[in-house]
Amino acid sequence: QVQLQQSGPGLVKPSETLSLTCTVSGGSISTSSYYWGWIRQPPGKGLEWIGTIFYSGTTFYNPSLKSRVTMSVDTSKNEFSLRLSSVTAPDTAVYYCARAPGPWGEESLDYWGQGTLVTVSS
Amino acid sequence: QSVLTQPPSVSGAPGQRVTISCTGSSSNIGAGYDVHWYQQLPGTAPKLLIYDNSNRPSGVPDRFSGSKSGTSASLAITGLQAEDEADYYCQSYDSSLGAGVFGGGTKLTVL
């Protein structure tokens, strides 16, 4: 059974960079069958697809966030990461990592992390 | 304003049938992209309920079913149970935006 475990700070100051990591267990991240993604949900609001990364390091970002998003993968640790730069209050959200069969948000997300509430505040 | 439009809320009594609509456009659902549905219980991560319009992952009861037609999709829940009270989200892909998109979510209340 695949499990995704998220880690990272819950509080980030305005203009700084948000950093989160998702560790995959119960399966290898180095599979050609899946991509690894990030989704966020502002408090009381709906979901927003941020992007995905393949184990090779190839990335696919939501154009609306592309200028501020960087994703990376560490196959030796079976984990992938999200960095979102120059954060402001609207970036306050629960951030989820997830697994998807495809890269562009077209495919379903079958396994999810537990979510991390990240608050942007000084 | 979400690209995919869902009713903010629906309700039904135990045992009844409810449907949740997801309305898109010619650049997403109408373009032939698949629709997926998620159930989100309070304080938890979304759970995949229906994938590729009408398929249920292993473990999802057959009380849940999905369909798609034209620029819209629907999730139907029959034999409503108290445990079905949750938020439900649809997801597809939008070629104009070049990204995956979600509906705004529908809160299901079991009366």
Walk me through the topology.
The complex is a heterodimer of chains A (122) and B (111).
Chain A: E1 3-7, E2 11-12, E3 18-25, E4 35-41, E5 48-53, E6 59-61, E7 69-74, E8 79-84, E9 93-100, E10 111-112, E11 116-120
Parallel strand pairs in A: 2-11
Antiparallel strand pairs in A: 1-3, 3-8, 4-5, 4-9, 5-6, 7-8, 9-10, 9-11
Chain B: E1 9-12, E2 18-23, E3 36-40, E4 47-50, E5 64-69, E6 72-77, E7 86-94, E8 99-102, E9 106-110
Parallel strand pairs in B: 1-9
Antiparallel strand pairs in B: 2-6, 3-4, 3-7, 5-6, 7-8, 7-9
Number of strands of chain A: 11
Which secondary-structure class do the elements of chain B indicate? mainly beta
Order of helices and strands of chain B: EEEEEEEEE
- Described by the principal axes of the CA atoms, the overall outline of chain A is globular
Specify the overall morphology of chain B: globular
Provide a count of the helices of chain B.
0
User: What is the end-to-end distance of chain A?
Assistant: 39 Å
Overall pLDDT metric of chain B: 96
pLDDT < 50 stretches of chain A: none
Beta-sheet strand percentage of chain B? 35-45%
What is the straight-line distance between the termini of chain B? Answer: 28 Å
Low-confidence blocks of residues of chain B: none
Number of H- or I-type helical stretches of chain A: 0
- What fraction, in percent, of the residue positions of chain B are helical? under 10%
Percent in helix of chain A: under 10%
Total DSSP E strands of chain B:
9
Order of helices and strands of chain A: EEEEEEEEEEE
Task: Name the chain pair with the biggest interface and residue counts per chain.
Answer: A-B, 20 and 26 residues
